[in-house]
């Protein structure tokens, strides 16, 4: 599961003055490294207090070691290559081999020591978003600590004072570093294992990138016009499904470190937001929803009882966020006569293809794309093209999944007679086109 990077070289340790003598430099824990892009099995703790671990979509949890009563982790900030989906790889910055970085899991009351080694070409820090910690551990470069220079290692030490779901990211050249993918999630489990327990617990962080067709690097200055809408730096059909056993209590923890809000929608169920990055929502304040907006710089966690078997779409409800790289300058031609359009366009560009006059369904159309560029809408289900991209995946609720089995169970076997079906229409009328207005509008 992990490939070991080995201990830091002795030379690097000599320079680790930032450790300030409170821990012996030689005792820096190994930095685990991940090179797989599929969800890794839950990492059950082998020491320290017990908890039911989370799984990270297309990601993993960072292993730790106990050192006395301290739980020690080692993050390495470094350039990485991330595959967004098959056919597209992007040069990002991340942690321990991936962007986003691994999920850090601990238990309320734990004392944690997090080593951060900087292998980026510029300085960085790590800010622990939402966590109640001493000011000097807050990771705001210049304000609460010196920036961590390339090649240096700093240590963050604090107690996990409250349980919940939090995020980490740099507060150091942050426009660039977050636009390059530096972020991750922190899950602090309640000390009391009977506090709102669930059977399956998923976590991911949302981020967006502008990677122009045919290129390999995000444009970090982009403020609004993104074209890659990602969950854990993956886009559909590259995002893992959420396999769930029928009857499971399921928790989904979602962080948003993009620059816009995302209304996240689950089909076939109603859920309640039970936790934010501010803490647990009291039961009396919860209410049923099918979509919950995840604001910028925030975490929303919902709990749902998976009592409806099937393949349930789970996606951002901004329709442009369920698409991959595209031009946004395409005009809406629905209702325009294809013949007139072809005539007009043909005069200007004789080899062009007029499209879009009956909608833009592209399921059966293959258009040539530049290298390293995904189709705008893609994915295939058992009934045909799904025509989605970006922030879309499927919660797969099945009767027969084992407890920690998170493998894709494949397409749902619909019970006979439960799928929408075609009927013979006696008089198939031609497709309606909007008619000419019959009377003039009074101005
Ligand atoms: Cu969205």
Topology:
Blueprint: E1 3-4, H1 10-14, E2 32-33, E3 55-56, E4 65-67, E5 70-85, E6 88-95, E7 104-107, E8 111-118, E9 127-129, E10 153-159, E11 164-169, H2 174-179, E12 184-189, E13 200-209, E14 228-231, E15 242-245, E16 249-256, E17 262-266, E18 272-276, E19 279-280, E20 291-294, E21 298-305, E22 310-316, H3 338-348, E23 378-381, E24 384-388, E25 392-398
Parallel strand pairs: 3-13, 5-8, 7-12, 13-16, 15-25
Antiparallel strand pairs: 1-2, 4-5, 5-6, 8-10, 9-11, 11-12, 13-14, 16-21, 17-20, 17-22, 18-19, 18-21, 22-25, 23-24
Q: Can you walk through the features of this model?
A:
The chain has 443 residues and is mainly β. The protein has a domain of 188 residues: Immunoglobulin-like. Strands 3, 13, 14, 16, 18, 19 and 21 form a seven-stranded mixed beta sheet that branches. Strands 4, 5, 6, 8 and 10 form a five-stranded mixed beta sheet that branches. A five-stranded mixed beta sheet has the order 15-25-22-17-20, with no helix packed on it. Strand 5 and strand 6 form a beta hairpin. Bound molecules: copper (II) ion. Copper (II) ion binds next to loops.
């Amino acid at each position: 599961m992990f490939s070991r990077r080995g201990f830091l070289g002795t030379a690097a340790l000599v320079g680790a003055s930032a450790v300030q003598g409170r821990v012996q430099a030689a005792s820096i824990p190994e930095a685990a490294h991940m090179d797989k892009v599929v969800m890794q099995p839950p990492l059950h703790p082998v020491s320290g207090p017990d908890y039911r671990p989370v799984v990270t979509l297309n990601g993993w949890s960072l292993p730790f070691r106990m050192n006395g009563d301290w739980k020690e982790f080692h993050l390495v900030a470094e350039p990485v290559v991330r595959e967004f989906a098959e056919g597209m790889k992007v040069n990002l910055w991340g942690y321990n081999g991936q962007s986003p970085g691994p999920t850090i899991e601990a238990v309320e009351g734990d004392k944690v020591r997090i080593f951060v080694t900087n292998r980026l070409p510029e300085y960085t820090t790590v800010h622990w978003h939402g966590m109640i910690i001493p000011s000097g551990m807050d990771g705001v470069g210049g304000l609460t600590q010196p920036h961590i220079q390339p090649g240096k290692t700093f240590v963050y030490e604090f107690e996990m004072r409250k349980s919940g779901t939090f995020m980490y990211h740099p507060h150091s050249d942050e426009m660039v570093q977050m636009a390059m993918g530096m972020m991750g999630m922190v899950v602090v489990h309640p000390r009391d294992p009977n506090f709102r327990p669930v059977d399956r617990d998923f976590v991911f962080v949302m981020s967006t990138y502008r990677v122009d067709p045919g290129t390999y690097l995000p444009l970090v200055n982009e403020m609004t016009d993104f074209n890659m809408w990602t969950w854990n730096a993956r886009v559909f059909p590259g995002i893992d499904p959420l396999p769930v056993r029928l009857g499971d209590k399921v928790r989904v923890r979602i962080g948003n470190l993009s620059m816009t809000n995302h209304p996240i929608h689950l089909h076939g169920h109603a859920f309640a937001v039970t936790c934010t990055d501010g803490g647990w929502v009291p039961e009396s304040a919860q209410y049923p929803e099918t979509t919950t907006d995840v604001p910028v710089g925030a975490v929303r966690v919902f709990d749902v009882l998976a009592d409806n078997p099937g393949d349930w779409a789970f996606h951002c409800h901004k329709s442009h966020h369920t698409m991959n790289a595209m031009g946004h300058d395409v005009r809406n031609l629905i209702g325009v006569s294809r013949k007139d359009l072809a005539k007009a366009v043909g005069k200007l560009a004789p080899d062009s293809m007029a499209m879009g006059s009956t909608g833009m369904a592209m399921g059966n159309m293959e258009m040539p794309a530049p290298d390293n560029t995904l189709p705008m809408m893609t994915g295939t289900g058992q009934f045909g093209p799904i025509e989605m991209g970006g922030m879309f995946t499927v919660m797969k609720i099945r009767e027969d999944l084992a407890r920690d089995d998170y493998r894709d169970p494949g397409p749902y076997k619909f019970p006979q007679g439960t799928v929408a079906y075609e009927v013979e229409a006696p008089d198939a009328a031609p497709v309606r086109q909007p008619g000419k207005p019959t009377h003039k509008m009074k101005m």
